[in-house]
Input
Amino acid sequence: MTANETLEIESLEIHLTQERMNAFGDAAGSAGRVHTDPEWAEPVFGSTLAQGMLVLDPVVQMMVGVCGSDNWFEGGRVKAKFVGMTRPGDTVVARMKDVEVVEEEGRKRVRGSFSCETQAGVVVIVGEAEGPLPQ
Output
């Protein structure tokens, strides 16, 4: 890849289930009642709500696919704004756009903007991601 080159990154999706949310909460330490206790969450929110970082995971996976895991975890960055809620039963598609390869301080990086959207077309996360490319 050369600097100033545009790049296409294939979209990824995640299907949210209560089981997946519970497992993520246990693993990530985000097992709050709003995420894992339907009896508590339903009267307040209509259902449990998925953890934002779980819904953001496809974006990270796309960037790991381009940058490689070592490069991403050493120098990847995500700026995200959570603009909607996701619930068990939702399928969320993460898409990258305006992706380009740039050179900074002698190192090539990939950067672009992203959105995460439910099967109903509701945007729930928007942001930017960038990370170093393999040398």
